[in-house]
User: What shape does this take?
Amino acid sequence: QVQVVESGGGLVQPGGSLRLSCVASGLTFTNYAMSWYRQAPGKEREFAALITSSGAYTNYEDSVRGRFTISRDNAKNTVYLQMNSLRPEDTAVYYCNAQNDFQLRTTYWGQGTQVTVSS
Assistant: This one.
């Protein structure tokens, strides 16, 4: 059974940092590109960051580029999102996504972790 579990969310002041983690089990992790999405209150879920299965390529949504860093440890089946210089508009539920490289219909989501940026 595939499980995708996020952790690391919380309350942080503007300008602060958080590191999110996502552990994926029950799948061949090296066959999956991993992404972080986020959903703010009253808004649709949006893409934040992606890392390819090998870790060689990353991509970011414009508003987080230069502040967020996505990385992965294939030995631990874990993907991270280091978030620096956080802003109130980064407040959202952050979701981890696993997308199979070979079967585009095979995708898994975690339950999300809340990030709140507020003074």
